[in-house]
Amino acid sequence: MNFPCEVDLQEQCPVCGDKVSGYHYGILTCESCKGFFKRTVQNNKTYVCVENQQCKIDTSKRKRCPFCRFQKCLNVGMRLEAVRADRMRGGRNKFGPMYKHDRALKQQKKALIQARRLRIESNQKDVTFTSNIHSIAILHNTKLNPNQLPSQPCNSPAVLQHQITSPTNWAMKLENCSNSVELAALAEAIIGPHHTSSRSISTQSPRIPQLEIEFLHCDPHDLQLQKNIFSCLQQEQACRHREPSTFSSVYVMADQLLCSIVEWARTSIFFKELKVSDQMKLLHSCWSELLVLEIISRQVLYGTDGGLLLIITDTEMYLFSGTTLSCVQVSYTLNSFNKSLKIVSQIVLFLSDVKELEEHRFVESVQQQVEGALLKYTLASSSQSCNRFTCLQLYLSELHSLSILAEDYLYYKHLSGEVPCNNLLNEMLHAKCCWT
DNA sequence: GGTCAAGGCCAA
DNA sequence: TTGGCCTTGACC
Q: How much is the average pLDDT of A212-229?
């Protein structure tokens, strides 16, 4: 992952990049842009751009074009209604709770970055890979097989060989895709063409373990996803000349879910506006969180009673009950938010603290808009919305922890070569391998 | 009483 | 006109 050596705690004004002095008119800005926005609104000023209305605004050029500066103020989220018509001084306005939640979220974000950095440092200090590996499994009334726990050190010849013969670079292909159709074509190229249109899944597909069938039935509306998964499983069976193992089946499903997540992201509001390079950086940073959220969401929406459970364990088998409990809590909490799950996904997508984004200010303003949207949704949907909003933020932290466990386990499987080849999940894990 | 986001003031 | 600093006052 792309982590800077030092997290920049000094906020920059999203309009001009100057030092932020506090919340002003809805967002964090510098004193200069605060004053500029206030004067413009209070005095009903109108400006004209002598260029093409796309002037660059930074600390040195912000005085040159007030038109573009004011447009940028509005674009990054400064609120006209926060300027008081009666010019009353002092006091608080209606944005107070929003500022409070935004601060809490930023604090949480910093804590997450810190935790992630500590974890990476901890991983780097470990001599063997098995000392801190965690396991993730999708179970259905079964227990984890102790044999599934890692036993191979990461610097073994087999692992090194696997790293050398890594799959083709999916990221480069993604960069060349300009729309969802091309992306779907790429996904098909990665997983192989599916022939389910002329065949009956029930008669022609490989023998799939019961738990995977139940998993597929979790989302009866997602037929295309089911077809893709069956197609991949058929291909996996043909390649290995035997039935896919339970783990391979789960891996294929996770990979296909990941493909659908990427497709959703690339066509979603805000994200599609970003440059492809920024899209890739964000996705590389949060794919595992989105994947875990997707799995939990499907569990909540389609299989809450006696269905599949996402269970996280440590290497010590008997320690997993506590984490399991928290995972179930996440599910039930998210259940009450099921209509806003895509907003939650947007938060995860844009919450990633990725440095060196070309459009980092746009991403920051989107973060605020998405958080605002979720707050509005919770305010409109429940009298206890403030508690729910705070709760959700806490569970986002839990989601992040779960995703780290999932990544670790899949990463180990990736290194040990136990996974199906040539897929998106492998590419993400291979990228992780290069970054850490 | 402290905090902090409003508006106001004024030198450059 | 700008932008740094000051004053104000609701909220905690």
A: 52
At residue A109, the pLDDT reads 60
Write out pLDDT tens, residues A31-66. Answer: 999 999 999 999 999 999 998 888 999 999 999 999
Chain C nucleotides reached by a protein CB under 7 Å: 1-5, 7-12
The CA-CA-CA angle for residues A262, A123, A419, to 5°, reads 45
Tokens 């009334």 sit at which residue? A141
A413 is in an annotated binding site: yes
From CA A83, how far away is CA A89, in angstroms rounded?
11
**Does A213-433 carry CATH code 1.10.10.10?**
no
Residue ranges of domains in chain A: 22-84, 213-433
SS3 assignment, position A367: helix
A22-84: what fold? Answer: Erythroid Transcription Factor GATA-1; Chain A (3.30.50)
pLDDT, position A236: 65
Provide the percentage of residues in chain A whose pLDDT is more than 70: 40
**Phi-psi label, residue A26: left if phi above 0, alpha if psi -120 to 50, beta otherwise:** left
Q: Which residue is nearest to nucleotide B7 (CA to C1')?
A: A89
Sequence-distant contacts of A215-224: CB under 8 A, at least 24 apart: A215/A138, A215/A253, A215/A308, A216/A253, A217/A302, A218/A298, A218/A299, A218/A301, A218/A302, A218/A303, A218/A307, A218/A308, A219/A298, A219/A301, A219/A302, A220/A302, A222/A260
Angstrom distance, A95 CA to C11 C1': 12
pLDDT digits (tens, 9 = 90+) for A120-159: 555 444 322 222 222 233 222 233 233 332 333 233 222 2
DSSP A238-280: HHHTSPPPHHHHHHHHHHHHHHHHHHHHHHSTTGGGS-HHHHH
Q: pTM for the whole thing?
A: 0.44
CA of A32 to C1' of C4 (A): 8
For the CA of A390 and the C1' of C2, the distance in angstroms is 40
Please state whether strand B lies within 7 Å of residue A355 at its CB atom.
Answer: no
For residue A263, how many other CB atoms are within 10 A of its CB?
16
